[in-house]
Design goal:
The protein is mainly α. Helix content is 63%, strand content 4%. It has two domains: 138 residues, no CATH class; 137 residues, Homeodomain-like (Arc Repressor Mutant, subunit A). Helix 7 packs antiparallel against helix 8. It is elongated.
C-alpha cells in the first residue's frame, strides 16, 4: 500500500510511517512530496494521504495523526500507547504532557537539520523509533542512576503496600531505619518522589504513611534530621573541617548545610562546634 504526505518530515511524518511499517503494513511505500502536490499525487498514485488538513488520517482536536492511526487500527500495545503521548506532545508543541516529548522533538529537529533527503531521514528515524519502542516496552521503569540501595528501598515499599491493611507497625519501618542509618556515610540523595514514581503510587500517599511511623516527619525531613545527627557525631569524634562534614553527610554545599543545621539545632555549625570545644575544655579542667 502507498502512503503519501508532505515533504521535510520531523515528528508525525516519521512516527506514522514507522507505525505503519511496524504494525500495519510491513511493505508500505512512503512518499514525500511538496505540500500543494499531496492530494493530486495521491489520486495519481492511488496512495493514501496523511498528516495534511482535510483528509482522514490527520489531526483531530488536540490529538495528532499518530493518535488517529493507533485508534483507526485498534493498536492496544501499551508501549505504543506510551509512545503516542510522547509523539503528541512533541508534534503539537505541548512538551509538558510527557517528559520525553522535548527530547523527541530535539532529536527529530536535529535529524531533519542534518539529513536533507526525506527517505534517508525516514530510515534514520526508523532506528530512533525502534529504540523508543524498546524503551517503552522493556525499560521505561528503569533509571540510569538507580542504585542497589534504591532498589532495596523500593522492595521495602512494595512490602509496605502489601502490609498496609494489617494492624500494628509494619516490618518495613524497622528495615528503613536500619538502611538509612547504614547509608548515612554514602552521601545519601534519595527522594520520596522518585520512589513513588517507580512504584506508580502518588507521593503524597507515601509521604503521609511514612510520617505516621517517623515522628510526624516526612521522608525528606527524616533524612535531613539523620544527617544533622551524623554531623554532630562527626564534630564530637573527628577534626574534620565543616566543609568536609557537610560533604560527608550529603549536603550539596556548606551554606545549605549551615542553614539546615541551624534549623535543627538553633545554632550555626561554627557556633555549635565552638560551644562543643568549650564544653570539652571545661570538662578536662
Amino acid at each position: 500500500m502507498k502512503w503519501i504526505t508532505r515533504e521535510h518530515p520531523k515528528i508525525d511524518r516519521i512516527a506514522c510511517p514507522w507505525l505503519i511499517r511496524r504494525f500495519i503494513d510491513k511493505e508500505a511505500e512512503i512518499i514525500y512530496v511538496p505540500f500543494h502536490e499531496v492530494k493530486t499525487k495521491a489520486a495519481e498514485l492511488n496512495a493514501t494521504p496523511f498528516d495534511i488538513p482535510d483528509v482522514e488520517f490527520t489531526h483531530y482536536e488536540d490529538r495528532c495523526t499518530f493518535d488517529y492511526f493507533v485508534e483507526k487500527y485498534n493498536i492496544t500495545d501499551p508501549a505504543i500507547l506510551t509512545i503516542a503521548v510522547i509523539v503528541r506532545g512533541a508534534d503539537t508543541d505541548r512538551l509538558d504532557i510527557a517528559s520525553q516529548s522535548s527530547g523527541l522533538w530535539a532529536i527529530s529537529a536535529g535529524l531533519a537539520h542534518n539529513i536533507k533527503d526525506d527517505h534517508q531521514l525516514l530510515e534514520a528515524g526508523m532506528v530512533i523509533y525502534d529504540a523508543l519502542y524498546s524503551w517503552a516496552k522493556h525499560l521505561q521503569h528503569q533509571r540510569h542512576t538507580q542504585s542497589p540501595f534504591e532498589n532495596l528501598l523500593m522492595d521495602i515499599y512494595q512490602q509496605f503496600l502489601k502490609e498496609k491493611g494489617t494492624k500494628g507497625k509494619p516490618a518495613w519501618v524497622k528495615q528503613i531505619k536500619e538502611i538509612i542509618q547504614d547509608q548515612l556515610d554514602a552521601n545519601l540523595t534519595l527522594s520520596l518522589k522518585d520512589i513513588s514514581k517507580n512504584l506508580d503510587v502518588h507521593p503524597s500517599y507515601l509521604s503521609r504513611e511514612f510520617s505516621k511511623y517517623f515522628d510526624d516527619l516526612s521522608f525528606g525531613e527524616h533524612i535531613r534530621k539523620m544527617r544533622i545527627e551524623r554531623a554532630i557525631q562527626l564534630m564530637h569524634s573527628t577534626e574534620y573541617a565543616l566543609t568536609e562534614i557537610a560533604y560527608l553527610t550529603g549536603f550539596s554545599d556548606q551554606s545549605h548545610f549551615s542553614r539546615i543545621f541551624k534549623t535543627h539545632t538553633g545554632k550555626s555549625p561554627s557556633i555549635f562546634r565552638k560551644n562543643l570545644l568549650k564544653s570539652k575544655l571545661n570538662t578536662k579542667s
